[in-house]
User: Fold this.
Amino acid sequence: MADALERALRDLAAAVDTGPVPDVAPAVLARLREQPRAARRRPWLRIAIATLVLALVAAAVPDVRSAVAGFIRDLPGVLFNTSEKHVPPVPPVPRRVNGSLGGPLGLTDPITLQAARSSVSFRVLVPESLGAPDEVYLRDERAVTMLWRARTGLPPLAGSQVGAMIDVIDPAAAAIFEKMLYGIGFQRLVIDGHQARWIAARHPLLVLDAHGDPVARRDAARTLVIYTGQVTVRIESHTSACPDAEVSETPAHADNPDP
Assistant:
C-alpha cells in the first residue's frame, strides 16, 4: 500500500503546474550592489527584532502561543489540533446504508467527476495510478471527495468498503476539517517541495461548517495531507508506511506539555 500511495503522490505532483520560474538572480545581485552595507543590514535587524518580540509575546500569552503554533502546524483547509484533550460533543457522521460506497462514511448525493469539477473554482486532481474514482461527492464547494472501492492493496476503511478516500480542498476557503491530535504524534514532511503532514495513527476527524464550527465527527485512518500551492489534498487509507520525504517529527503532546 505504501507503493500505491507513493505512485498516487507522484501522479498528483506531476499534475501540479507551478508555472515558469523567473531568473531573478541578475536583478537581485544588481540591487545588492546598489545598496550600501549598512542599509542592507537594517531590514534584517528589523525582522530579527520583530521575530524576538513575537516570540516573547507568544510565550507570555496563551492565545497568541496557540495561534503561532497553529500557523506553523496547520495547512490550508485542514486544522491540526494538538492542544485540546477532549473532542467537542458533536454527533458522529450519520452512517447511511443506502447502497452507496460513501453512505457508511456519512456522504450523500454522489455526482460525476465532471460535475464536481464544473462546480468548483479549483483544480480536482486524480492520481492515474488509482484509476477513476468509484464515487465523487461535492462538499459545499469547499472540497471534492473521491472514493475508491477496497481491493487488493487497498484494504477497506473501518465499517465501509472504501479502500481510499481523497479530499481535494480549496485552500482559499474556510477550513473544512479539523484533526484532533492531542497525544497523537504526527510528522511534518516536505514531498517534492510541498508541505505535508503524516498521521500514522487512527484519530478523530471533525467536519467543520463555513463558520468553523464542528458539525460531525468520525475516526479517520492513517492520513497524509499535502499542500501543493494550488490545492490541499487529504489522502486517507490503511497505508503501511510513511512516504519517502524530508521529515520533521512532531511528537505527542508537542504543543501541550501538561499531562
